[in-house]
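Researcher: Next sequence.
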Amino acid sequence: MTEPVRQAKWSPRALAAALVVGSVGMLGLSFASVPLYRAFCAATGFGGTPQIAKAGATRQGERRLVVRFDANVARELPWRFEPEAAKISLRTGETTTVYYKAVNNSDKETSGQAAYNVSPDQAGAFFVKIACFCFDEQRLGPHETAEWPVVFYLDPALEKDEAMRRVEEITLSYSFYPTKTPAKAKTSDAAGQKPKS
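Model: Next structure:
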């Protein structure tokens, strides 16, 4: 005859403590999930997230691809925002600078932050930004116009990636959203802004 299985007995105090610890742990994980997801996307290019580097590529590749530029603004932000060029052709490993123009159409100072990605999604692992207005919040005074640079290259490693073999065109897309916190620096004083002629 087998002995009956004994169940562990939890005191009400131990059970309450376990529930509190579990709840706090789940709350902590929920707050950590967003930064962890962003770090994962930045490291792998998942979901079309471009890579970030401090310098250009160490070598140039052989392939030429077309990069298209897309610009969007949330309805709540009274800006006009557009790329200087609709598209360019470049070789892998070639560092390129492209400018976007922004105009505040309102009578008051406003600020915004750009969200960005590239498509197709698999291109994110090979699209490398060196400098971008999208890294910081931007502010425009009443009816102010600014031109902001994006410095980037396509990693020559994409030439060996099977998923990129048939890709001939990549789209870099930005969407500006209003921010409620004031920007740290006025846009016209920001380093890297295109000189006005």
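Model: The first strand starts at residue 51 and ends at 52. The chain has one helix and ten strands.
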